[in-house]
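Suppose you are handed a protein chain with no further information: no name, no annotation, nothing but its sequence. What can you learn? This example shows the usual starting point.
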Amino acid sequence: MRAFPVKNRSVLVTGCSSGIGRATAEVLREKGWTVYPTARKENDLEELRREGFDAISLDVCSSESIVEAVGMVLEKSGGQLGALVNNAGFGMPGAIQDLTRDAMRQQFEVNLFGLQELTNLLIPVFREQGGGRIVNISSVVGRIALPFMGIYSASKFALEAVSDAQRIELSPDNICVSIIEPGPISTRFSTNCANEGEQALDTKKSPFASAYKQYFKKRRNGGMAEDRFRLPPEAVAQKILHALESPNPKVRYCVTLTSHLGSWAARFVPVGLIDRMMLSHVKKRFG
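A reasonable first move is to predict its three-dimensional structure. Written in structure tokens, the prediction is:
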């Protein structure tokens, strides 16, 4: 898609305590952007500030926190902002039948509802200044649903749909929306995913109890099949940089080999074949 260049090289990046968000903040700052990184925990904010960032507290599950963060970033930036990178999110593992309503709601609150509330508050700023860039961090499983990560996949499918719709809605105002589909990246995601599952799932009552135990162990100890395809978070940051600076930002950016393969399979591989591949994958992972 064709886009006018960003006039104000300032950007709000969510979820910068580590991983993709932290790498993105560092890469963008090196390229001359004024970066406002966000995090929830005070110790993460303090660490960002020690590194010279003007960090902002943000909990995307809280409307009050979102409003306060938007007010703060606009105060710091003089009412101008060139771009928004929606990176904050987490993965809730578990078979769909084992997830409570609260667990499913929390997944969507973080990965979609809070993200979109923040975005909607900044759209008038972009529109008034003549344009802006929005980059949403999705996932390869936002194109092909992954068993035992089904609610996470659902939240990313929803994010892809919202991004596609809003890309058209905002195009007359020169506001570009791009989607990043990272695939496996060397971050805390796998460990955090195991922690979330152990806290939220009643594994003792589940028919998949023994499978969960093995799954969480692999998540923590690097025993996942996709581990050999992992790239550093800086690889994602470079795609985000392109989405923010290019006169022709892409609609979707794949990062890793598995991301490219997943995107291709979603478009060209019959559903029956994908189902057989997924079943084989599940048997290898869980036995």
